[in-house]
Amino acid sequence: MAEPRSPEHRTTPMRRTRLALQGWLLSVRDMLTSAGPVLLLAAGLLVGAYVWLDPQPPRSVTLATGPAGSAYAEFGQRYAQALKQDGIRVELLHTDGPAASLQALRDGDADVAFVRGGSSQAGDADAANNNDADAGIMSLGALFYEPLWVFYRPGAVNVASAKGGSAKAPAQAPVKAPAPDVRLTSLTQLQGLRINLDQPGSGVPELMQRLLQANGLGPDTFTASNLPPDAATEALLAGQIDALVLMTAPESPAVQRLLRQSGVALADLPQADALARRFPFLQTVTLPRGMVDLARDLPPDDIGLLTTTTALLTHEDTHPALRQLFAQTAQKLHGGAGWFNGVRDFPNTRTSELPVSPEGDRAINGTPPFWQRHLPFWASNLLERMWLVIGGLIVLLLPLSRVVPPLYTYRVRQRVFRWYARLRAVEARLDEGETNASELLDELDELDRVASQITVPLAHADELYALRNNIEGARRRLLARRDQAPAFVS
Which keywords appear in this protein's UniProt record, sorted alphabetically (predicted)? Predict the structure, then answer.
């Protein structure tokens, strides 16, 4: 009858849990050790690709917005608020106007800039645009229309110019005072007036000189001034100037004020189509009747205006993730309907004078990947920049991963098989008969004790039990040999 096991040999729940945990930890260690070289290779390649690709953008970016208080400055604030949610700080750089903003982009003082169409034109338009394109300046898309607003005091318009004649009457004819409330329908009617052409750097003085020259008016046929929009508005209302010219978005505070001001009219230009043909960067739009104020029916008629488009320009050195973020933000801020456009007319790539960056084209004309719609900016950007590397690593590691299971199996089996060398040495000494049987039995007992403490996964338990069976077989042979020894000697 078998003797009951002593308490120290009983398997308690705690001991079973400890053994199970020990086995699991050993399996994890074996797996990590076997897969270690492959994991280290993958980690090294990922780190190298991360450093080379530099997927995460700088945390600050400079946006050239134009004069403080302008529509550009207002849009700059909106961009700053939108990008702040993604952890990007937008520093607003106020300039004298679109031409100055473009120059800041050329000089590297700004990463992104609002630039009006035609601002780069210094003589040959194509040559200027080609020079900017060669310098790495690109567009993220056209954002909105920026009409040419010509506000005037109707009582100051020259009657003779309105009839198509000369503003200078013959010497023998009496000079007539300007008739009140004469509508300005041609740029030739500006002859002899005091006109504010906006500030230098805004691009408006150069543009108006070209338009007036096309209408036969030279610099000596009118009196020009270059006051900022707010000061020019006050001067027009005070009668100190007869007309002012602005080229800005409808959201401009000066435009909003003058459109609702009594005693001030907005010029309707029937020749706008002809001027747009002469100057390709210009287009024509119509300010619909009642668009400003339906209740007051402002304006009382449709008004034809010349316009250009304002684009969001950037430089090729600007981080691609920032270009993508600005293009996506432009979709949100400028995609609605406006005074001169319908929903989703802007941003667009149709009116860009410079090459459109891949990020701008993808944001405007493509469909954003699903990860951009569901992941935060940093995660989607990381995946966007690294997916080729990750895909290449998967392709590379698939064949390498085939060596992991054999390495794992070898490591686990080695834990068992290394004791066979000791067992074989005991059997060799047993066969030679040179060692005392008691010493060999003690060594086999020690070997069995060690084998009983070996922990292997269940999938390899048969190899452990095979070792213990072989140890037991050697013990039986040794005992049988010892029992037969006296009879053999006798």
Answer: Coiled coil, Membrane, Transmembrane, Transmembrane helix
CATH number reported for the structural domain that contains residue 124 in this entry: 3.40.190.10
Question: Does residue 246 contact residue 256 with C-beta atoms inside 8 Å?
Answer: no
**SS3 of 286, please?**
strand
Question: Dihedral of CA 389/391/395/397: which sign?
Answer: positive
**Encoded amino acid at 266, one letter:** L
Taking the CB of residue 56, how many other CB atoms lie within 10 A of it? 13
State pLDDT tens for residues 152-184: 998 887 543 444 443 343 333 443 444 445 788
The length of the chain is: 490
> What does the alpha-carbon distance between residue 161 and residue 188 come to, in Å, rounded to a whole number?
6
Report the range of poorest mean pLDDT among 31-40, 331-340, 415-424, 465-474: 31-40
Q: How does pLDDT run across 367-412, given as a tens digit for each residue?
A: 776 666 667 776 776 677 667 677 777 777 777 677 777 777 777 7
Taking only the tens place, the pLDDT of each residue in 1-17 is: 444 444 444 557 776 67
Q: How far apart are CA 234 and CA 225, in angstroms?
A: 14
Please give the helix or strand (H or E) that residue 305 lies within, else none: strand 303-315
Name the residue among 310, 302, 265 with its Cα closest to residue 283.
Answer: 310
Taking 60 as the threshold, does the pLDDT of residue 281 lie above it?
yes
Record the pTM.
Answer: 0.64
- Asked if the structure places residue 435 within a domain, the reply is no
CA angle 20, 22, 25 (to 5 degrees): 110
Q: What is the CA radius of gyration of the chain?
A: 43
Q: Is residue 153 part of a domain?
A: yes
Helices (H) and strands (E) in the chain, counts: 17, 10
Structure tokens belonging to residue 341: 């456009």
Please name the helix (run of DSSP H) or strand (run of DSSP E) that holds residue 141, with its range, or none.
strand 137-152
| Residue 35 within a domain | no
Residue pair 144/338 in contact by the 8 Å Cβ criterion: yes
* Number of structural domains in the chain: 1
Phi first, then psi, for residue 285 (nearest 5°) are: -140, 165
